[in-house]
């Protein structure tokens, strides 16, 4: 009983909010945060697209090990890794169960293993970029690569506002808990508590959407007052905003090292087949 309660305390909304705030506002201490965002985005595009066209287990396993290393260097929040693992297990697990239901056997686990490696590579590459870099730098990198200013700002703003929305959601949940009544008995496997909190999640949805709309309107009014639309349409303003972006020898070394490692993987994959 005490162990279960301790586990639930670790996955509370407050804990998730703190982890998100650390991801959004504390990513500057990560090793990869000093890499130019344009370089990181180009690196991400390679590892987000190329694995889908590879069927060699040696190459995929090597890419997976590289993504694990870069994820560690990005210092991603633990709950993001947990969500990733649960998603991969759930997605691949039900596909394996369905394959057994339609006459498959254990041999069908091999292609699912390759699919899991591909999903893991793409997911870990996303975590590396979007957890290891400041949202403002990611938005500047997208803007420098030619993306619309509204899209670049929306992405960075979404990362900034996510911890605030979690805080708003926590306040709404607490207000409903103060006016409600927790079940006196948790029931078998805590099913009464699960039903109670699921009801709170449902009734908290609409107040959260209203609060989000209000914050979005306030943000838009503040941006327009400061000339956001006017400034982003002029090349001089864009040049001043992106003047801090510079590709250094560290960035070139990072890309060169990744390219050499990928070339070595393809060479090994042509001579040795692990999976």
Topology:
Blueprint: H1 2-10, H2 13-25, H3 37-49, H4 57-74, H5 78-101, H6 109-132, H7 135-144, H8 149-179, H9 191-203, H10 205-225, H11 228-232, H12 235-241, H13 249-271
Helix pairs in contact: 2-8, 3-6, 3-7, 4-6, 4-13, 5-6, 7-8, 8-10
**Termini gap:** 42 Å
Low-confidence stretches: none
**Derived structural class:** mainly alpha
State the helicity in percent bands.
Answer: over 70%
Description:
With 275 residues, this protein is mostly helical. It has 2 domains: 26-133 and 245-274, no CATH class; 148-244, no CATH class. The chain contains 13 helices and no strands. The mean pLDDT is 80.
Entry keywords:
275 residues; mainly alpha; 2 domains; membrane; Energy-coupling factor transporter transmembrane protein EcfT; transmembrane helix
Offer a concise description of the structure.
The chain has helices at residues 2-10, 13-25, 37-49, 57-74, 78-101, 109-132, 135-144, 149-179, 191-203, 205-225, 228-232, 235-241, 249-271.
């Amino acid at each position: 009983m005490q162990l279960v309660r301790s586990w639930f305390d670790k996955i509370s909304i407050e804990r998730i909010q703190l982890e998100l705030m650390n991801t959004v506002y504390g990513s500057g201490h990560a090793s990869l945060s000093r890499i130019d965002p344009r370089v990181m985005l180009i690196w991400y595009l390679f590892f987000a697209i190329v694995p889908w066209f590879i069927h060699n287990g040696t190459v995929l396993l090597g890419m997976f090990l590289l993504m694990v290393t870069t994820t560690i260097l990005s210092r991603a929040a633990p709950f993001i890794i947990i969500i990733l693992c649960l998603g991969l297990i759930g997605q691949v697990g039900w596909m394996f169960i369905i394959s057994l239901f339609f006459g498959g056997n254990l041999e069908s686990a091999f292609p699912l293993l390759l699919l899991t490696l591909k999903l893991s590579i793409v997911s870990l590459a996303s975590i590396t970029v979007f957890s290891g870099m400041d949202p403002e730098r990611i938005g500047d990198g997208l803007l420098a690569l030619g993306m619309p200013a509204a899209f670049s700002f929306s992405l960075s703003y979404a990362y900034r506002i996510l911890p605030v929305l979690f805080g708003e959601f926590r306040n709404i949940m607490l207000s409903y808990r103060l006016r409600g009544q927790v079940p006196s008995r948790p029931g078998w496997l805590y099913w009464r508590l699960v039903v109670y909190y699921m009801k709170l999640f449902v009734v908290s949805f609409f107040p959260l959407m209203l609060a989000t709309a209000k914050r979005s309107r306030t943000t838009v009014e503040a941006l327009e007052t400061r000339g956001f639309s006017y400034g982003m349409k002029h090349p001089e303003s864009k040049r001043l905003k992106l003047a801090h972006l510079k590709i250094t020898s560290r960035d070139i070394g990072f890309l060169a090292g990744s390219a050499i490692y990928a070339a070595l993987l393809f060479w090994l994959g042509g001579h040795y087949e692990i999976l």
